[in-house]
């Protein structure tokens, strides 16, 4: 303590004897480092994402497009942006969205050739039709591992049967998102292909590596299929059980009961908060997540976290005393899960208004520990972005890789063509354990991980706004 006091006193004496000099300007890299530190300090000490997410999840809950909960979420989003006191204006963009209703809880059971039945965990795929008359549908089962294997079967083998698509995740892949993409065609197209071949329905193994009794929903697309048949997801435990029993008893049957319904389209909205750029207001940076979610749980990681992070990113900039030089919009997109109508409408309006979009950022991979960003752009622009790695790396957000940025910002690439698209990338190892299932609740989100993500997005916006592309 005495030594510290002596050093302080010597410094004060030296300062009083030296002539006053103008302080040298802070080098840009140093200034950027300090500003990003301010962003993270605000997020970690006074972040608001977690409290906002608590309200969205626990007071509103699952927000399937067209539902009353989705309408409440729009009101919440607008009010939350206004209360954040960081936007120059907050407004809504009208769009028509599909309105699919799950109906009563689905029932599924395996029935052996001696009549013994075993109830299994199932849920309807999003957009599926009901079983005929909303009554139990019973038929034999044909198991396949892929769409190609199914298409190779003769018509006589599949007609009048349930087609059981049982391709699991490829657990050799380090990134679970790659495994999800590899198995996803059976959910998206399985029911349509089954209907085309005269099958009575499709049973699809849930798209997850978790071995549990929680079925995972997700959209299925019938396209122009004239014969629409019901499609249901089996939990991974139920899928394994059905596969094992089917091997021992190929003549067993499955009974499925679903009462889902597709209603006329509903009017809904994107929610937009805008901060006008101080120097280049004609150049727009978009940051967003999707406000809708599936209906089995609260839509916490998918995509409540992305929604609250997008709002928080702009609040963090203001709290750190940083006014964006380019216009920044936080957009809460409606209907990503089963239609992408909100993202399409946002892009249409941007094109109609002849807007210039510099960049778009999406958070739709959960609220886990940051890694960095996936980037879609030219090699030359990527090199410019890569130069920011040292500024983001101390906060675990410096991993910049070429990759898919996000579904809601894809339509922008086809219309106003931003210079670059960015997808917030976080640790995804647990994401698909929860994704589209009853497990996706507020309690599964860690506060520090969530707030770090919002700060990562704010930091990228700061750099894009200051330096452009």
UniProtKB/TrEMBL annotation:
It is found in: Endoplasmic reticulum; Golgi apparatus; Lysosome; Secreted. GO terms for molecular function: carboxypeptidase activity; metal ion binding; metallodipeptidase activity. This is Carboxypeptidase Q. GO terms for cellular component: extracellular region; lysosome. Residues 185-195 have a biased composition (Basic and acidic residues). GO terms for biological process: proteolysis. Homodimer. The monomeric form is inactive while the homodimer is active. Gene3D superfamilies: 3.50.30.30, Zn peptidases.
């Amino acid at each position: 303590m005495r030594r510290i006091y002596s050093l302080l006193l010597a410094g004060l004496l030296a300062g009083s004897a030296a002539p006053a000099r103008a302080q040298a300007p802070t080098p840009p890299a140093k200034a950027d480092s300090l500003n990003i530190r301010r962003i993270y300090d605000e997020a970690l000490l006074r972040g608001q994402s977690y409290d906002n997410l608590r309200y969205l999840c626990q007071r509103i809950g699952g927000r399937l497009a067209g539902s009353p909960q989705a309408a409440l979420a729009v009101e919440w989003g607008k009010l939350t942006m206004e209360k954040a006191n960081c936007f120059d204006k907050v407004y809504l963009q009208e769009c028509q969205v599909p309105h699919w209703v799950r109906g009563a809880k689905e029932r599924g059971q395996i029935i052996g050739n001696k009549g013994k039945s075993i109830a299994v965990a199932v849920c309807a795929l999003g957009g599926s039709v009901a079983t005929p008359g909303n009554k139990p549908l019973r038929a034999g089962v044909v198991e396949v591992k892929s769409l190609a294997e199914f298409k190779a079967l003769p018509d006589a083998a599949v007609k009048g049967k349930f087609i059981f698509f049982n391709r699991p995740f490829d657990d050799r892949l380090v990134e679970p998102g790659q495994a999800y993409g590899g198995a996803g065609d059976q959910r998206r197209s399985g029911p349509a292909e089954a209907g085309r071949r005269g099958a009575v329905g499709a049973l699809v193994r849930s798209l997850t590596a978790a071995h549990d009794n929680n079925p995972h929903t997700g959209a299925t697309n019938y396209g122009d299929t004239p014969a629409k048949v019901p499609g249901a997801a089996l939990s991974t435990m139920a899928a394994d059980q059905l596969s094992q029993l089917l091997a021992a008893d190929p003549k067993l049957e499955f009974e499925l009961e679903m009462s889902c319904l597709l209603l006329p389209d509903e009017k809904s909205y994107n929610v937009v908060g805008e901060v006008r750029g101080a120097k280049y207001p004609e150049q727009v940076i978009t940051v967003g997540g999707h406000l809708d979610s599936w209906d089995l749980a609260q839509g916490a990681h998918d995509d409540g976290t992305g929604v609250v992070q997008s709002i928080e990113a702009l609040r963090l900039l203001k709290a750190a005393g940083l006014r964006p030089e380019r216009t920044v919009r936080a957009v809460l997109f409606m209907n990503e899960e089963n239609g992408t109508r909100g993202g399409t409408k946002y892009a249409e309006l941007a094109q109609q208004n002849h807007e210039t979009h510099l960049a778009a950022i999406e958070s739709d991979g959960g609220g886990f520990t940051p890694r960095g960003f996936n980037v879609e752009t030219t090699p030359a622009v990527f090199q410019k972005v890569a130069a920011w790695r040292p500024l983001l790396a101390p906060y675990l957000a410096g991993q910049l890789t070429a990759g898919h940025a996000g579904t809601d910002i894809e339509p922008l690439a086809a219309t106003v063509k931003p210079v670059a698209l960015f997808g917030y990338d976080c640790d995804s190892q647990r994401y698909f354990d929860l994704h589209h299932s009853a497990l996706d609740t507020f309690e599964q989100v860690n506060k520090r991980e969530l707030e770090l993500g919002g700060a990562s997005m704010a930091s990228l916006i700061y750099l894009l706004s200051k330096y452009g592309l």
